[in-house]
Amino acid sequence: MKKNGFDTLTLLNAALDRAASIGKCDCLIYPTESRSVSPAEAYGRVQQALAALADQGAYFYAKRIDSTLRGNLGSETDAFLDTLGAEYIAVCVPCFPSSGRAIVGSHLLVNGVPLRRTEAAADPKCPITTTDALALFRAQSKYKVLPIHLDRVHDGVEELAKTIAAKKQEGARIILVDSISEEDLQTVAKAVAASGIKTVSVDPGPFTAYLGKELLPGDKPEVPGGKILCAIGSVNGVAGTQTLLLLKERPVTAVYLDAAAVLESQKARENELRRLTEELIARREENNILAVIGSGIDPQKRISFGPYMKKYGLDAEGVSGLINDAFAEVALTVLEACPEIGGIYSTGGDITAAIHSAAGTVGLRLMDEVLPLAGYGIAIGGKLAGKAFISKGGMVGSENAMVTCTDYLLAHL
Questions:
Q1: Backbone dihedral region of 372: left (phi > 0), alpha (psi from -120 to 50 degrees) or beta?
Q2: Residue 141, SS3?
Q3: Strand ordering across the sheet containing 174-177
Q4: Does pLDDT of 219 surpass 70?
């Protein structure tokens, strides 16, 4: 959306009630943080957000979903349809060509690999057991879901618009559309616009951007110099490879957060966080890149959540939250002691959320997309006000993605 010229703002920490204080923006993004909650809770959060925005004059609605179909796809889409009314349909295009996501015959491929054979399938909080996106939506939604396959997309805009209208006439409230390329996404967006049907876009981002471009005009504002702090919490193989390359290719002052120490006891946690913050603060003049990295980046040092779930009476999400909060505490303590640090790079959505939650950030003004699913912007409000940031999903990007992001952040301070 930002690349299409829209002034774009992400609200954090349930700050809908403070949105008016931020000023005008073209595109407002609100995270409901509902991927791993129950379907009913996810539905309620989305419905509550839409109700709060009902009087804000929104012209176009979009539902962002995970690019590997994790989470409450159906119930959250249902919340949009229930709230917006019977004249709306949802058009879902879970395709992200530049990140290797394509959907063919309603089956999602990640870099050519069926979804259920990727790392996303083994996600401890939201595992994936099928590659069939149509089956996932039908299992999760109360509404009729119909597919449109690739041949119909390649019939062109006019014919595809007629097909979309026909599916609506058949009673579909959710239409799942195949796409494998940027050209396909543009075709679908143009067809939806040509159909004149009120539509909620449901996708990982690119389809929404193309549809927004069809429906809305826009122009680009300007961006507002360099030491940065990196919080690297993802423990999957992709993030591990990216981290090793960053440490190899760039001068980084790094400390490693011991997850076992953080979870062992309150005293052990305090000692570990004190060790990390004191070392980073003492060594801050060594390099322009400081980093706190989860020790689980080394597969041999990864821990099992099971004993800690039993010890604290928490689920996996709760245990993960204790680790994320530790990253946030280290980051904020170091940033407070080192005001010369102008930017924060974070990898792993939960880490990013924990940092901004602890900081009381009101919103994130998105300035650019560095890589697909890696955004650059400025924090608004709270302890990080005015700080630049780049956040990236743990499994996003090629081997050099982390190097690209940190280089970009340093260059834009």
A1: beta
A2: coil
A3: 61-64, 199-203, 89-92, 174-177, 145-148
A4: no
For the residues 300-318, what does the mean pLDDT come to?
91
Residues 6+ apart with CB under 8 A from 224: 378
CA 47 → CA 18, 272, 393, distances in Å?
18, 40, 26
Q: Report d(CA 376, CA 371) in Å as an integer.
A: 9
Helix (H, G, I), strand (E, B) or coil at 88: coil
Q: Which of 405, 341, 343 is nearest to 375 (CA)?
A: 405
Q: What are phi and psi of 331, to 5 degrees?
A: -60, -45
The position carrying tokens 């120490």 is 261
pTM above 0.70, yes or no: no
Please state which CATH class domain 227-411 belongs to.
alpha beta
Superfamily of domain covering 28-215 = Putative sugar-binding, N-terminal domain (3.40.50.10840)
DSSP 254-302: EEEE-HHHHHH-HHHHHHHHHHHHHHHHHTTTS-SEEEEEEGGGSGGG-
Amino acid 267: pLDDT: 96
* CA-closest candidate to residue 224, choices 412, 360, 374, 53: 412
